[in-house]
Amino acid sequence: MAVLVTGGAGYIGSHMVWALLDAGEDVVVIDRLSTGFQWAVAPEARFYQGDVADAPLLARIFAENSIDAVIHFAGSIVVPDSMSDPLGYYENNTVKTRSLIASTIAAGVPHFVFSSTAAVYGTPDSLQPVLETALLRPESPYGSSKLMSEIMLRDAASAHDFRYTALRYFNVAGADPRGRTGQSSAGATHLIKVACATALGRRQEMSIYGTDYPTPDGTCIRDYIHVTDLAAAHLKALERMRAGGGSLTANCGYGRGFSVRDVLDAVKTVHGSAFAIRVEGRRAGDPASIVADATLARTELGWVPKHDDLGGIIRSALDWEAHLMRKNSY
Ligand code: UFG
Questions:
Q1: Could you tell me the CA-to-CA distances from 101 to 73, 107, 247 in Å, in that order?
Q2: CA 147 to ligand 1 center in whole angstroms
Q3: Which residues face 169 on adjacent strands?
Q4: Distance between CA atoms of residues 215 and 211, nearest Å
Q5: Which residues of 102-132 are buried (b: 16+ CB within 10 A; e: fewer)?
Q6: According to DSSP H, which parts of the chain are helical?
Q7: Candidate from 26-40, 45-59, 225-239, 281-295 with smallest mean pLDDT
Q8: Is 222 near ligand 1, meaning CB less than 6 Å away?
Q9: Helix 260-271 / helix 191-199 crossing angle, nearest 10 deg
Q10: I need a labelling partner for 15 at 20 to 30 A (CA). Which of 26, 167, 176, 268 fits?
Q11: What is the pairing mode between strands 248-252 and 221-222?
């Protein structure tokens, strides 16, 4: 059986494709290449260029390949963009996911893994690691767009012969340790990516958005997880559903937080030299602190992270950034 990966030309999706191939799976990719790159798709995967909401195309893909699972990464992921373009986010993340779920069920494909996000929680009530049962109070249209998709999956799974695993990602960073893929978007806004680009001289300077948060050093705290460990959690989710496991929603993070300043200090240390940092005001939609309680992923999925090391995450991100600069692919 094959696995269909949506957004397989993107950052996390391209790592997933390699992880599936490494595990001996047959892989089919759909990506409209709006932010992804065809060169990022492993050549062994069968590639279709198109939109996940193109129902006739999806019907053809399911007819042409023996697919038993969909892993859905395609979507928009930048929290501040979702504040300025909420309807675009609901269209791309929620409306199109509804169409993809309908196509998947219509084709009789029983398993679905969904890229959800810690942004569904908003700012938790305490600084303790957040459990899946915490209140869901997204603070951005991005978080709301993903939460709506989780709700559609839940309801679709009770009405149809269909099971899903929603993985709520915390802050994904780093690159394939074998250097096959990494975060390649030109306009990427994520902290570790931006810091690495600045350290390497690709950018003149970078900003810290807010130093007046109720955290020990005043900057926001996040749980940074290596993209390779995240891909491994998806493989576990697939394995569990194929063995008959029911629908599940689980956090993916390491359960420890680093502030923006911690991350920037670590990038300086790993890279070996300082770079220009400006302090600016808060960025809209940013929760002060959010760290995962990922006990469920460990117990239910049997997920055992292997790259829980901020320095290692940064090293792999720097290596990938240097690779992009060498090949001038910006
Ligand atoms: N930040 C800076 N300067 C930058 C970029 C980011 O100070 O140049 C700060 C942000 O203000 C925030 C922190 O670094 O406090 C992390 O920001 P990112 O943009 O790297 O990531 P987000 O936390 O906004 O969002 C990410 C994912 C979401 C996920 C969320 C969970 O994109 O999918 O983490 O915490 F939900």
A1: 13, 10, 14
A2: 18
A3: 117, 252
A4: 9
A5: bbbbebebbbbbbbbbbbbbbbbeebebbeb
A6: 11-22, 55-64, 79-84, 86-89, 96-106, 141-159, 191-199, 227-242, 260-271, 295-301, 310-326
A7: 281-295
A8: yes
A9: 30
A10: 268
A11: unpaired
Structure tokens at 69: 């699972």
Cβ of residue 282 lying under 6 Å from some atom of ligand 1: no
Residue 222 alpha carbon, nearest atom of ligand 1: 35
Check 48, 89, 142, 164 and give the catalytic one: 142
Q: Is the pTM of this model over 0.90?
A: yes
Amino acid at 313: I
Cα-to-centroid distance, 101 and ligand 1 (Å) = 28
Active site residue 90: no
Ligand 1 atom at shortest distance from the alpha carbon of 80: 24
Structure tokens at 83: 């504040």
pLDDT at 32: 98
CA–CA gap between residue 310 and residue 313 (Å, rounded): 5
CB of 69 closer than 8 Å to CB of 241? yes
Write out the two tokens for 289: 């602190």
Q: What integer is the mean pLDDT of 47-66?
A: 98
Give me the sign of the Cα torsion angle 211, 315, 29, 254. negative
Structure tokens at 103: 């196509």
How buried is 136 (Cβ within 10 angstroms: 0-12 exposed, 13-18 middle, 19+ buried)?
middle
In order of start, what are the domains of the chain with their CATH numbers?
A: 2-173+224-252 (3.40.50.720), 191-221+255-302+304-327 (3.90.25.10)
